[in-house]
Amino acid sequence: PVIAQDGSGNVLVLWQQQTNLFNGGLPSGGPMLPNTWFARYTAGSGTWSAPVKLSNLDVTGTGTDTTTHARIAVNASGNAVAVWSEVRSSVGSIVSARYSSGSGTWTSPVLIENNPQTADRPEVAIDVNGNAQAVWTQKIDASQTNASGYTARFDAAAGTWGAPKEVTYGQFTV
Fold this sequence. Notes:
mainly beta
């Protein structure tokens, strides 16, 4: 799990949790689908929200689909951005969703990169205006031995993620 706190003492938590129930009629009990979940602690009332599933893996996959490395950043006003690695059909991508403290809701998850090489290990930061910056590792292409570092910026005014940019060269492992 990962945790972040806003300027009012509210706490936002992300974690991965399997969402499929064990099915004794299937090999190994059925496919394991760890999804990314969220809960929020409201300091004023001392209560936790009900858990909310942010990712959307389902049983239509091969059973190897998963989410990992969830990260969250929150600004003083309570707006947040989450990123995680989502593996579908053996290819990892970086996915993001944003939380609005005003509405108390998350946006639908969106891909923030589209390179066919597996992306992994995201991190994220957010500023006072809601602009965010994400970084992750990813190979430039299949011929590379090591991964490079990439980054993308979320523009809060436009409501969109910019194109990913390479920030390191794949000669050394990031």
